[in-house]
Write a structure and sequence with these properties.
Shape: globular
Number of strands: 7
Mean pLDDT: 89
Helix content: 25-40%
Order of helices and strands: EHHHEEEHEHEE
Strand order of the largest sheet: 1-2-3-4-5-7-6
Structural class: alpha+beta
Strand content: 25-35%
Distance between the termini: 18 Å
Largest sheet: 7 strands, mixed
Oligomer: single chain
Radius of gyration: 16 Å
Length: 176
């Protein structure tokens, strides 16, 4: 049994989420666009959570947090841009630096696949990863995602525009 718990984001996660994002800011910005400075405040994180919970209520997002065995926030995982008509969504995940390399991103992605299949009844998931982010690409491939088209200008990392690839997973009952 995993020492981690993955559950839907809640408003009372705000203090831990702010600390997690502040502690891991430089780590995350190695591979993704930086968040605006105003995000890194109690009000900024609360606004972010409210926005994500409104998206969840409206059926366009399923935001999750990953908690370690002590109940501390270790990562995040989200179904984004859920399109019920097309039966698609994008996946995203981020794991704190001290939890990297422990299989947590894979567990989180498998959780999202389960949510997509069982709760949202989706047929296909997408993800994007910048070229050179081998850890994230390995997680996607381990979970059955196939590399697709290249995506130019996918992110800005340390002021440099970088390219990446889209990945996709067709969801079939009982797979993954």
């Amino acid at each position: 049994m995993s020492p981690y718990t993955i559950r839907t984001l809640r408003l009372d996660d705000a203090p831990q989420l702010l600390a997690f994002e502040q502690d891991n800011r430089a780590w995350f910005e190695r591979h993704i666009d930086p968040r605006p400075d105003e995000f890194y405040s109690a009000d900024g994180v609360l606004a972010h959570i409210r926005h994500f919970l409104a998206g969840h209520a409206g059926g366009s997002l399923h935001p999750c947090v990953i908690l370690d065995e002590h109940g501390q926030l270790a990562g995040r995982a989200n179904l984004k841009d859920i399109d019920r008509q097309a039966q698609t969504a994008e996946v995203g995940y981020r794991v704190g630096q001290q939890h990297a390399g422990q299989g947590l991103a894979t567990a989180a992605l498998r959780h999202l696949i389960g949510l997509a299949r069982e709760e949202w009844r989706l047929a296909r998931l997408y993800a994007c990863a910048i070229d050179g982010n081998t850890a994230s690409i390995r997680v996607l491939e381990r979970c059955g995602f196939a590399r697709g088209n290249g995506v130019a200008d996918i992110a800005i990392v340390h002021g440099v525009v970088v390219d990446g690839h889209q990945f996709s997973l067709d969801l079939e009952p009982g797979s993954n």
